[in-house]
Structures are given as structure tokens and as C-alpha cells.
Specification:
The protein has about 110 residues and is an alpha+beta fold. It has a domain of about 40 residues. It is built from 2 helices and 5 strands; from the N terminus they run αβββαββ. The protein has a 5-stranded antiparallel beta sheet, with helices on one face. The longest helix is centred in the middle third of the chain and has 17 residues. The N and C termini lie far apart (about 35 Å). The mean pLDDT is about 100. Bound molecules: adenosine monophosphate (AMP) and zinc ion. Zinc ion binds next to α1.
Length: about 110
């Protein structure tokens, strides 16, 4: 989507520190980390937030959730991690392309 910073990251128009990528999703380091490890996992298809997810995104969202622990383990978060999805302005969302925060401290 035009003018979406995360779509630009997907298209490599904006640099990012990518830790995982496949045909469905991209994971990169948060530019302003709130934890020693702070990653953002995003779908390659644009939708604004969890509140904008449709039935057609069901499989994609499932794949993303199942990928989270793999990415976390590869980032050294073998002792556990936090996930967060901010939804809407009232939920603290600032970038309106769905993303899952993955945060923690390596064991
Ligand atoms: P949220 O408040 O859930 O919308 O979170 C947006 C997150 O995106 C924040 O933690 C920002 O630090 C992060 N962010 C914004 N721009 C970039 C960027 N260009 N590269 C990496 N992370 C970014
Ligand atoms: Zn986007």
C-alpha cells in the first residue's frame, strides 16, 4: 500500500534489519527497541490492523503465530518471550500495517 512504511520495508525501498522472510511474512528488528530483542513480524499483504483482518487472512495469521516461537528461539529467546499486537489508536498502534511485536531478553 502506498505511503505505508512497512510495505516499503517489504519492497526494500526502506532498509531494515531482516531476521526472517518467506513468501507470506517478514520479520525485522524494531528501530526503537523496547527490549534487548525487539522484532516486528508483518504479513506481506497489507491490512491496517487486527481489527481489519478478514476470513481470507485466517491461514496467514495462523502461519504467523506458529512462526513466532521459531523466530524467537533463533533470536535467543529460549527462556520465553512477549508478543504484543497494538490495535487502533486507542490500542497504541502507530503504524497501520498489522504487526506482531516479539520482545524479550536472550537466556
Ligand atoms: P505500534 O505502536 O504497535 O504501531 O508499533 C510500531 C513500531 O514500529 C514501533 O515500535 C516503532 O519503533 C517501529 N518502527 C517504526 N518505523 C520503523 C522502521 N522504519 N523500522 C523498524 N521499526 C520501525
Ligand atoms: Zn503496509
Amino acid at each position: 500500500m502506498e505511503n505505508c512504511i512497512f510495505c516499503k520495508i517489504i519492497d526494500k525501498q526502506i532498509p531494515s534489519s531482516i531476521v526472517y522472510e518467506d513468501e507470506n511474512m517478514l520479520c525485522f528488528k524494531d528501530i526503537n527497541p523496547a527490549a534487548p530483542v525487539h522484532l516486528l513480524l508483518i504479513p506481506k499483504v497489507h491490512f491496517d490492523s487486527l481489527a481489519h483482518a478478514q476470513l481470507e487472512h485466517e491461514t496467514l495469521l495462523g502461519k504467523m503465530m506458529l512462526k513466532v516461537p521459531q523466530i524467537a528461539a533463533e533470536a535467543g529467546l529460549t527462556n520465553g518471550f512477549k508478543t504484543q499486537i497494538n490495535t487502533g489508536k486507542g490500542g497504541g498502534q502507530e503504524v497501520f500495517h498489522l504487526h506482531i511485536h516479539i520482545m524479550g531478553r536472550p537466556a
